[in-house]
Amino acid sequence: MKKLSVYIHIPFCVRKCFYCDFLSAAATEETKQQYVDKLIEEIEREAENYREYEVVSVFFGGGTPSVLKTEDTERIMRVLRGNFTIVQSAEITSEVNPKTADFAKLKAYHEMGFNRLSIGMQSTDDRELRALGRIHDYQDFLDVFEAARRAGFQNLNVDIMSALPGQSVKSYEKTLEKVLQLQPEHISAYSLIIEEGTPFYEWFGEEENQRQRTGECVQLPNEEEERRMYELTEKMLEKKGYHRYEISNYAKEGYACRHNQAYWTRQDYVGFGIGAASLIENRRFQNKSDLNQYLAGEVEKEEQIQLTKKECMEEFMFLGLRLTKGVEKEQFFEQFSLPLEQVYGDVLKKQESLGLLVNGEKNVYLTKKGLDVSNLVMAEFLLDE
Ligand code: SF4
């Protein structure tokens, strides 16, 4: 059977964090329930297109999936199990915001088959959390982490962020130290990006917009501090046995996130809920992002795109090179019936001579220096028309 990953989008949060441009918003209990009803209808309707697939990973993301009532999460899980073949060993993850879950909820998650949680902590410093507009403090995170362990979860991810307003290299180091003491199986470490359309963009996005908000710690770290935080991440995590397997993701042996790896290696995935994207046999499509339309039963997809061979090759490289093991030459040949060197020989030579990439016997991967400037290296893999 063919393999499939399933993504479930829950577009609700208690309130919006100041930096967030994800498709999410606060909503009433009634809206959330209606959304779950429509989500279930969508899953039941679409499932017949995936009869020849078995599901190897499920990921509830958002938004804040844990903002749903437990019985609603259970309804979604039940309909997934009833309509898809989910393999016994499937990785089933839910994102969790520390303020929206307790032991009873997590225990119920574990019982309904979730075996991995991704907890959005971001920082252990309450001032930094407030500056981000997070709804939880560090103690809330500690409580939920402990509750997750007690509920039986043996695969936990913790999200952390660097380059935050008011953050110093010292305070970031503290965050890393404290997370490491807890020994989660997986750590995602992202650098804050100031996205257009967010309050942070108004405050920090453009030079002329930048202003101090009185009484708040809103200075962004400078470039040098940012670089030191970035370097500290790899140094401290690797020292404690976390392998950097992707630009921003670290895991103990055997705990790399299978769901995300499916994205990066371009395996088939289907997304349900507003804005959810899918890739099925090189066809990309996405649900519309309008919540009201979705609730009204208007479920048209955005334009579907059948990727050309050239686009598939580009994606293969962009996404695969995010992984520290890089891309496999044999897989490239299997998918495109062309040797990688024949398509990208000149780029490989150039990037290798700059010390940014290794062209090994079986794999092509970025060096540490290449990972540091990965966007620039990947841009080189765009093909001419
Ligand atoms: S909890 Fe996550 S999805 Fe929700 S607003 Fe904050 S960053 Fe965005």
Features:
385 residues, TIM Barrel, Arc Repressor Mutant, subunit A, 2 domains, three-stranded antiparallel beta sheet, 15 helices, globular
Overview of the molecule:
With about 375 residues, the protein is of the alpha/beta class. The chain folds into two domains: about 1-265, TIM Barrel; about 310-385, Orthogonal Bundle (Arc Repressor Mutant, subunit A), CATH 1.10.10.920. It is about 40% helix and about 20% strand. It is built from 15 helices and 15 strands. The strands form three sheets. The chain has a nine-stranded mixed β-sheet with strand order 7-8-6-5-4-3-2-1-9, with helices on both faces. Helix 1 (about 30-45) packs parallel to helix 2 and helix 6 (about 170-180) packs parallel to helix 8. The two termini are about 35 Å apart. Iron/sulfur cluster binds near residues 20, 22, 24, 63 and 64.
